[in-house]
Fold Monoacylglycerol O-acyltransferase 2.
Amino acid sequence: MRDYFPIKLVKTADLDPRHNYILGFHPHGVLVAGAFTNFCTDATGFPQLFPGLTSYLLMLPLWFRAPFFRDYIMCAGLIPSDKESASYVLRKKKGGSAVVIAVGGAPEALDAHPGTFNVLLANKKGFIKMAMEHGAHLVPVFSFGENEVYDQVENPKGTWLRWTQDRLQTIMGVSLPLFHARGIFQYSFGLMPYRRPIYTVVGRPIKVEKKEKPRGEDLDALHQLYMDELSSLFDKHKGNYGVDKDVHLNFV
C-alpha cells in the first residue's frame, strides 16, 4: 500500500516520548490512506522517526461491531472514536501515546474533491478540550495528496445529492461520497484509487497545560493557535508538493 501511491511520512520536529500527544490529521479524504499507512503500520518508518511513541488511530465505533473486521483493525492499533477510549490511552502517566484523530471525520469526506483544501475545523473543539483535560500536547498533521486519489461526483451545498448525503450521514454516522477512479486492468473507471503520491507532514508540537475543567476562553485561544499552526504548516510545505503559492487552507 505504501508503494502503490506511494505514501511518505515527513517529520518536521521531534516528539518527546515522555509526553502524550493528540495528532490532528487533515484532511480526512475518501480513503484516509495516509493516516492508516503511516500510523497503523510501520511501513513508512513511524517507530524510527518517532522512537518511544505508540500511535492509535481513532475510528468510528460502528466498525468495531463487525465480527472479524473488528479484530483486524484492533491489531493495527485502531480504537473507537469515543471519549472513553481516547481518554484511556491519554491517561498513561509515563507518556509515549499518540492518539491520531481525523478531525473532520466522515462529513469532511463529502468535500474530498481533487484540488480542494477545505478543512472542517472551524467549530471542532472536542479534541482541543480533551488535550487540555489530559495535558496532551497537540500536533497538527497535513496529508498532501489525500484528496487526489479519488474523483467524486460534484455535490455542492444546496443540491439534492448533498442534502441526501448529509441526511444519511446524520442517521447512519458514516458518509457516503460517490467516488470513482480507476480499475485493476484499465484506467478509465473503477473503484481502485489513483496512484498519486501522498505526503503526510507531521508538524511541531503545541505544548498544552493540563486543566481538568478548561474555561471557554482557554479553549477558544488554544483552538485558534492550533488553526494558526496548521495554516503555517501547510503554507511552509505546500510548495514542495505541487500546491500553488497562492492557495491557502479554507477552514469550514
In short: The chain has a mean pLDDT of 96.
